[in-house]
Design a protein that fits this description.
Two copies of one chain form a homodimer. Chain A has about 150 residues and is α/β, with parallel strands linked by helices. In chain A, about 40% of the residues lie in helices and about 20% in strands. Chain A is globular and about 40 Å long. At the A-B interface, α2, α3 and α4 of A face α2, α3 and α4 of B.
Chain lengths: ~150, ~150
């Protein structure tokens, strides 16, 4: 079930790759298991440096539910969120975070400032990292090899 | 001149307070000194947990200029940006960051994960912090006292 949601996030990531975007995808799931929002990265298409997949699904879900807080929701994302997305996840009060591959170069959960471990972080989700290092990581590696 | 831009950000923050939003305001300025975008915090009005003043002006400016990169632009904000906004500032390649008051509880520049000092940060602006601790800090303090 968890892998199913991550696979849907992976499909979103692949769509982003086809559109020339860095291939990261995210799915936001309600307490009852319903998918509230799914998206890939859209920075280039929208000319928005904050349009990471995680931010886009949080924005869409918060709008749909009419609340800045998504207390009982879980987020599935193909890559370890960056500092921006980690903080957005915290502000939205996401319950659980599942991610596919670790990101030593840009991650903000297990790398860099490790936002959820800071005293300035006032809500941290449960975190389940590295769920599918092979598929999620390879998609990114292939994308950057092709762009070189 | 710098204080003039910060005063405009402060006016945006005051508008946010009047609308029941946490009073933080931001102004984005081009290399020639033109104000490209200004905004206060709009999280409640838009049901968007990422709608901090900094993120809103970056989004608006990037859209106007048709680029995710705002290389020669400077950002003025009344409060030390959080981790989310610090990362957004980095992604947008903002040149200089000026902020009014430090934020020990939620800041991400001089507090918490100090994003710009992390190896996962690939662009850091020049930072000029604590420009107007009294006016910018007092506005926030008054707001939270009134809400208690």
């Amino acid at each position: 079930m968890k892998q199913d949601y991550l696979n849907i996030a992976l499909l979103e990531a692949k769509k982003s790759a086809q559109a020339g975007e860095i291939p990261v995808g995210a799915v936001l799931v309600s307490a009852t298991g319903e998918i509230i929002a799914k998206s890939g990265n859209q920075c280039e298409a929208t000319h928005d440096p904050t349009a990471h997949a995680e931010v886009l699904v949080i924005r869409e879900a918060a709008k749909k539910l009419g609340s800045v807080r998504l207390n009982e929701c879980d987020l599935y994302v193909t890559l370890e969120p960056c500092a921006m997305c980690a903080a957005a996840i915290s502000f939205a009060r996401i319950k659980r975070l599942y991610f596919g591959a670790y990101d030593p170069k840009g991650g903000g959960v297990d790398h860099g400032g490790q936002f959820f471990n800071q005293p300035t972080c006032h809500h941290a989700p449960e975190v389940y990292g590295g769920m599918d290092e092979k598929n999620c990581g390879d998609l990114l590696k292939e994308f950057f090899i092709q762009r070189r």
